[in-house]
Amino acid sequence: MTKAFLPHFRENKEVLFINISSVGGKIPLPYLCLYHSTKWAVEGFTESLGFELSHLGIKAKIVELGEVATDFAGRSLDMTSPETIEDYNESFAAFQETISSTMQPSEPIVISKVIYEAPTDGKDQLRYVAGETGCTHVTPNEIGFTNEFAAYDDSFMPSLRKLAKPRKVSS
To answer: How far apart (Å, rounded) are the C-alpha atoms in residues 146 and 115?
Structure first.
């Protein structure tokens, strides 16, 4: 898709690619490996694309979604449920309970405002966060939380929010 747009973009200059990612491109959760790998790919692809095309006047931006009021968690967890492997049943049940009890989703209108802001604000900014959880631009390694992530317990999401400090987003 990008290859199809590039000739037109090179010809017109001063244009913009916007890719939609999520906080899942920054903070991985257990049982969602495939989902997170796609978000990390979008993040890396967009950032690299921005570097490659900036000398042509072409910019790339990323809108990272936090939790949105949809049935995403239900659908996604249905696809990844490890019901057939008993070793995972207890930790997966705890994961599902934690996710359902800690979600504080944003309404889609909040997300749409950020998606509108990214191309219209005139800023040379790479990442835009949309939604409440999108503002924790950290990874478990950056906050020294790797062991707790690996162990994953019922207090993980609130603990992460408490430990996470917003940081300046590079452009």
So the answer is: 31
21: annotated active-site residue = yes
Is 39 noted as a catalytic residue in this protein?
yes
Asked if pLDDT for residue 143 goes beyond 60, the answer is: no
In a domain, 6, yes or no: yes
Active site residue 113: no
The pTM of the full predicted model, rounded to 2 decimals, is: 0.68
pLDDT in tens, 54-108: 989 999 999 998 877 666 656 655 655 555 677 877 877 777 777 766 667 778 8
Give, in order, the Cα–Cα distances in Å from 39 to each of 13, 89, 94, 111, 120: 27, 26, 24, 17, 24
CATH of the domain at 100: 3.40.50.720
> Is residue 169 assigned to a domain?
no
Candidate list 26, 31, 35, 106, residue with the active-site label:
35
Could you read off the pLDDT of 58-68 as tens digits, one per residue? 999 999 988 77
Instruction: Give how many domains the chain has, as a whole number.
Output: 1
